[in-house]
Write a structure and sequence with these properties.
Elements lengths: L5 H7 L28 E7 L5 H4 L8 H7 L14 E2 L5 E2 L4 H8 L3 E8 L9 H10 L11 H9 L10 E4 L13 E4 L14 E2 L2 E2 H13 L5 H19 L19 H15 L6 E5 L21 H21 L7 E7 L19 E7 L6 E3 L20 E2 H12 L5 H4 L24
Parallel strand pairs: 1-9, 1-10, 4-12, 4-13, 5-6, 5-9
Antiparallel strand pairs: 2-3, 4-11, 7-8, 10-11
Helix pairs in contact: 1-8, 4-10, 7-8, 9-10
């Protein structure tokens, strides 16, 4: 074991269990309550950095096209040629690099919500504050002890005994949306999450070095203190991942995850979510982070089709490929109806391109919702307009839909959690937009 210490093991582990962690994933203390029902889950994709939603879903005709072109003379998405926007409903299109998302839209599996953001009094163009508002689900309050996904899990009911992985942060660290939830598994690469097993000597079917390492770790954390509980939880999780053989996975036919480019890492993390979802381990929520959207300089000319020279288009292409592959992967196992994917950024960009052919921090932005039960092929919400007098502070796309309204509908209808007051404290849910096929929980009103 060399100089491995109890604390260095926890610090070096890619599994994030707090010092109060349980002995294994899926178990937690607390008052008795009904178990979760159903097997649906949510994948929350956070585009960190402030994604330019106006170029993802640009106006391609109508009264907003002319001001869009005049305010974005270089980076506007074209309406003809190889970089022409892909047509959506009405006067809007989808970025030319989002072919996979466009197919999902045409299939009725992708919905787009216009002008999503925070209430006017809480709009912030600070990455730090705005990301906290999203993660915590509390616009105007950038500090808290729990994230909105953690509060959903807490209020949804008791974790069933068989739920081994109810919450998954697919990445190197858990987001603050899961802050306060100790049964979250944080895993980036399943193939590297095991003790070094390079030994030809076998004991009880396991390499000797691996067996001795795990026995030593178990002895190191044999006590009953907080550190011991966290350590034993980490040991048990290593054994769980090893027993599941998560590194061995074949996606469904037609699920073509990118293996190179800016989204290769995101693809591996999305593939892990599909892998775990298919094993019926009680997955309720999973998170993905995809950064690199802070495009202040050289965002990418609207007629530049070469993705190697167009940073924004390359990221859109990667996102589109990964999400379409994830959907195809679940659909190939008849599980697409169990999954809803929500894609959000902390804010949009300003309407006018800057002198560096980029865009600065803005506010209102589209939100993407996709899945087998989503009422897709439609644009929801209200686009605030790009003409004089319509922009927020004469700079940004106006916010017309509170992001919590979109998330509340998913939590209530898809995940079956009626306790929205606990998930989003202080928010008065006005009712569904119609993203889901029906909301039986609130069929009798929203009193």
């Amino acid at each position: 074991m060399g100089n491995l210490t109890r604390r260095s093991f926890l610090k070096g582990s890619t599994l994030c269990l707090t010092a109060l962690g349980g002995m294994r994933l899926g178990l937690r203390s607390g008052p008795a309550r009904a178990e979760w029902t159903g097997n649906r889950f949510l994948v929350f994709v956070f585009l960190r950095g402030g994604m330019d939603g106006l170029n993802l879903v640009p106006p391609i005709s109508g009264p907003d096209r002319a001001p869009y072109e005049s305010k974005r003379p270089t980076i506007n998405i074209r309406t003809s040629g190889p970089t022409a926007a892909l047509p959506l409903s009405g006067n809007f299109g989808l970025h030319f690099a989002a072919g996979g998302l466009h197919q999902l839209y045409q299939q009725g599996r992708l919905a787009i919500v216009h002008g999503v953001g925070f209430p006017l009094e809480f709009i912030s163009r600070s990455h730090f504050d705005a990301q906290d508002y999203v993660d915590l689900g509390t616009p105007g309050h950038a500090r808290g002890s729990s994230g909105w996904l953690a509060r959903h899990l807490e209020s949804a009911g008791q974790v069933p005994v068989g739920a081994r992985i109810p919450a998954l942060a697919s990445g190197s660290a858990p987001p603050d949306s899961l802050l306060g939830r100790r049964d979250t598994m944080t895993l980036d690469d399943a193939s590297s999450f095991h003790p070094n097993a390079n030994s030809g000597t076998q004991v009880d079917g396991q390499p000797l070095y691996k067996r001795s390492t795990m026995m030593t770790l178990a002895q190191m954390y044999a006590g009953s203190g907080a550190l011991d509980l966290a350590g034993s939880g980490a040991v048990n999780t290593v054994e769980l991942i090893d027993s599941l053989n998560l590194s061995s996975y074949t996606p469904s036919p037609g699920a073509n995850y990118p293996t190179s480019g800016v989204a290769a890492g995101l693809a591996n993390q999305a593939k892990l979510i599909a892998n775990i979802a298919k094993r019926d381990l009680g997955l309720q929520v999973a998170t993905l982070d995809y950064g690199g959207w802070d495009t202040h300089e050289n965002q990418g000319a609207g007629d530049q089709a070469n993705l190697n020279a167009n940073q924004y288009a390359a990221r859109v292409d990667g996102l589109s490929q990964v999400l379409s592959a994830l959907y195809a992967d679940l659909a190939g196992s008849q599980m697409a109806g169990r999954m809803v994917v929500v894609v959000q950024s902390e804010f949009g960009r300003r309407v006018r391109e800057n002198a560096n052919r980029g865009t600065d921090h803005g506010s209102g932005n589209p939100m993407l919702v996709l899945g087998g039960r989503v009422q897709g092929g439609r644009l929801f919400g209200t686009f605030g307009g790009l003409q004089d007098g319509q922009l927020f502070q004469n700079e940004d796309v106006a916010t017309t839909t509170d992001s919590r309204r979109v998330l509340s509908e998913i939590v209530a209808d898809h995940l079956g959690n009626a306790d929205l007051a606990s998930v989003f404290p202080g928010y008065a849910y006005p009712g569904p937009l119609g993203l889901m096929p029906g909301d039986p929980i609130f069929a009798n009103g929203f009193d």
